[in-house]
Amino acid sequence: MTVIRGKERAAVLPLAVAGLVVSLFPIVYLHVVAVGQLSPLSHTISDYIFVDNGSGLLAVTALSLAAASVGLLVVLVRRGLPRRGPVALLLGLWAAGLTVAAVFPTDPTGAPTSLSGAVHRYAGAVMFTSLPLAGWLISRRFIPSAPVRRFSVAAGITSVAFMVSHVSLTYDGQVLLGLFERVLFALLYALLFALAAAVSREVVR
């Protein structure tokens, strides 16, 4: 039975990593085609829905990332992570937040906050809080991994900076929402890839 579970984990993990890789292509493409239209300093990634085909491409990124995260959670649970513990809950909230944020788009810059925009923002707050906490708990209690711990701490600090940037952090008259969010997403991707690598080492043992 143990051998079968090991094979199951080994089968799910490459799919999760593939989901992470696939999720990168649409968002990188949008950054390229939107040069001159959106500022990476002041516009958030969610603003790419206003670029041609942006809504669908962002949905692919968000849903692929959510699916990959669920795959990592499945591997962790099969390895012994409690299904009803805080880590499983936090990873589930991260994946759910991504999905909700994809379903409820943001508002245009300067427009009044709509119901969809409000839901999008709260989903983002849940996402950006949950994953760094989950990574930190995993590195402390479940799989000792210095990269996972470091990326979790860095992402947590950047998440706070991103939230503060909504009201006070500016440069040359621009609110630095976009800059902090992009740094945050880079750290979250690094955290997920580091977690996949850490889990992979555990599976091989």
Automatic annotation (TrEMBL):
<feature type="transmembrane region" description="Helical">
    <location>
        <begin position="54"/>
        <end position="75"/>
    </location>
</feature>
<feature type="transmembrane region" description="Helical">
    <location>
        <begin position="183"/>
        <end position="204"/>
    </location>
</feature>
<keyword id="KW-0812">Transmembrane</keyword>
<feature type="transmembrane region" description="Helical">
    <location>
        <begin position="12"/>
        <end position="34"/>
    </location>
</feature>
<protein>
    <submittedName>
        <fullName>Uncharacterized protein DUF998</fullName>
    </submittedName>
</protein>
<keyword id="KW-0472">Membrane</keyword>
<feature type="transmembrane region" description="Helical">
    <location>
        <begin position="87"/>
        <end position="106"/>
    </location>
</feature>
<feature type="transmembrane region" description="Helical">
    <location>
        <begin position="118"/>
        <end position="139"/>
    </location>
</feature>
<keyword id="KW-1133">Transmembrane helix</keyword>
<dbReference type="InterPro" id="IPR009339">
    <property type="entry name" value="DUF998"/>
</dbReference>
<dbReference type="Pfam" id="PF06197">
    <property type="entry name" value="DUF998"/>
</dbReference>
<feature type="transmembrane region" description="Helical">
    <location>
        <begin position="151"/>
        <end position="171"/>
    </location>
</feature>
